[in-house]
Design goal:
Rossmann fold, 3 domains, two-stranded antiparallel ribbon, 50% helix, elongated
Length: 202
């Protein structure tokens, strides 16, 4: 079934890659459960658990979507997922910053994950889900038996720099807006206090 020699199986045992039982005479026996576990771990078999598999693709700006980046990303991930025996494969695309924790499609996906409706989530690379806090999402997925499959381990340097620059601009814009709002609020309070004192303002 594995298309390997007995010597390879022995190495799997010694390396702890595959679980074995032992007979009284110390011969190796692999149970059905252990074999299925090994096959699943290496993507050689996938058991249908009634859950859907999802491709999640995201870009930060509408300009990136207009350039076709979002469609290409979704197609790349979906092509990879098709080689992994997908179950009821769905494709979810979204435009939004990786710093935005209120993305509609991501929140809907997380809700379905918590409800144990999703088996695997395929993403091109982990920051497609979120720029920060990825490990929190990963912990939730592990708790409910959902696997996150990262398709690409390499990211184009140019795209990283572009998106980081955009995210930094978003942070600056957000905080400057809040500071501006606080400053206006303080000025308004001072003016109201002055008016209460009966002083005419120009």
């Amino acid at each position: 079934m594995l298309n390997v020699t007995t010597q390879s199986v022995t190495r799997y045992d010694l390396a702890g890659e595959m679980k074995f039982e032992r007979t009284v005479k110390n011969r190796r026996i692999i149970t059905r459960e252990n074999l299925v576990e090994y096959l699943q771990k290496h993507g050689l078999i996938y058991m249908d658990n009634g859950r859907a598999d999802v491709v999640y693709a995201r870009v930060s700006t509408h300009k990136q979507r207009e350039r076709g980046n979002l469609d290409r990303q979704a197609e790349t991930v979906a092509t990879f997922a098709s080689t992994k025996n997908p179950q009821n494969l769905e494709i979810i695309t979204e435009v939004g910053s990786g710093l935005n924790d209120n993305r509609r499609e991501l929140r809907k996906l997380l809700k379905r994950i918590v409800n144990k409706e999703i088996g695997r989530v395929f993403v091109n690379y982990k920051d497609r889900l979120t720029r920060f806090g990825y490990n929190y999402i990963l912990d939730v997925c592990k708790e409910v038996g959902t696997e996150i499959v990262i398709v690409s381990s390499e990211i184009k340097e140019k795209s990283i720099q572009e998106e980081l620059a955009e995210d930094l601009c978003s942070i600056i814009h957000s905080f400057s807006g809040k500071l501006y709002g606080l400053r206006n609020g303080k000025i308004e309070k001072k003016l109201n206090k002055v008016k209460e004192m009966g002083v005419q303002t120009v």
